[in-house]
Design a protein that fits this description.
The protein is of the alpha+beta class. It has five helices and seven strands, in the order βαααβββαβαββ. The strands form two sheets. Strands 1-2-3-4 form a four-stranded antiparallel beta sheet, sandwiched between helices. Strands 5-7-6 form a three-stranded antiparallel beta sheet, with helices on one face. β3 and β4 form a beta hairpin. The radius of gyration is 14 Å and the shape is globular.
Amino acid sequence: MTEASVRPFAPTDAPALAAIYRECLSEASWLPPASRRTADFSADTQGERLLVAVAADDEPQGFVSVWEPAAFVHHLYVRRVSRGQKIGGLLLDSLRGWLPKPWRLKCLCANRAALAFYSSRGWREICIEDGPDGPFVLLENR
């Protein structure tokens, strides 16, 4: 595993995080094409707290964004080349100690890899609903 740590977002991270966001969404074959094309990192994370997973050289490897008032994990993305190195788990673990539980998030039902990841980390299904991009699962971590 690449040595990584998590730190708060800095404005200079925005271009790298926007690139990670675009890369991940472009690969999301389970998303409607229009949703992949119209994603805007700055607009889609506005007002949220961002934490950044960085390699030893401080290069961003992934990020998590949280809407704090609801303890809602809105985004969690990891660069393609950094997947399988426990970056996603490191980002979720970084929420401990400052974000009160329960935490919630939505995950599209068609995103089976993400659902398996969250399940392996103790997230439990609350309900399934329909959304503009298809059915999604509301997950909770207590």
